[in-house]
Amino acid sequence: MSLNQLIVALQKLIVTHRQMLHTAEVKREAIVKNDTDTLIKLLNQESMIMKQIQSQEAERSEAVGAFLLERGIKSKLNLNISEISRLVFDVEDKRRLQEVQNELSNTLRELKEVNDLNQRLVEQSLAFIDYSLDVLVDKPTQAPVYQHPDQRQSMMGQFGLFDSRA
């Protein structure tokens, strides 16, 4: 029975991570379009989804604990799904558990790829903004280390410096 609870908990995690994946894909479009209002809404959505994931992760952890107790293991081990599947002896149950594991890991891999792409897009956008600001704001050129004294005085006049020798 506790194995079924674990599988249900993992399926809930898959559904929630797919919601996060969809949100990340919409966020990519908003980043490309530079739509900050949509980005703010999406960040709020992601925050709510993360709270759901934390809650579901706690459910999964409880289901793992119940499964281990059912198998006679009283330790609070932090086992991953592959290690848990070694404790399942029914072929059909083991297959179901491995299918759910594969589906969850594929969803997490896709989510990581989309998030990495979004991060690169944001970095490129920030680099472009920085470059645009550098182009728009004319920075004064720095004087070289050595200049002819006549040129130095003319440059001092340009910057409004007072020549105390005069």
Order of helices and strands: HHHHH
Number of domains: 1
Structural class: mainly alpha
Q: Quick check: average pLDDT?
A: 85
Distance between the termini: 97 Å
Task: Using the 3D structure, state the CATH architecture.
Answer: Up-down Bundle
Helix content: over 70%
CATH topology: Methane Monooxygenase Hydroxylase, Chain G, domain 1
**What is the rounded Rg?**
30 Å
β-strand percent reads: under 5%
Shape: elongated
- The number of helices is 5
- How does the major sheet shape up? none
Please count the beta strands (DSSP E, at least 2 residues each). 0
CATH class: Mainly Alpha
Which residues sit in consecutive blocks of at least 5 with pLDDT less than 50?
156-162
Features:
166 residues; Methane Monooxygenase Hydroxylase, Chain G, domain 1; 78% helix; mainly alpha; single chain
Walk me through what this model shows:
The protein has 166 residues and is mainly alpha-helical. It has a single domain, classed as FlgN-like (Methane Monooxygenase Hydroxylase, Chain G, domain 1, Up-down Bundle). Helix content is 78%, strand content 0%. The protein has 5 helices and no strands. It is elongated. It starts with a helix and ends in a 7-residue tail after the last helix. Residues 156-162 have low confidence and may be disordered.
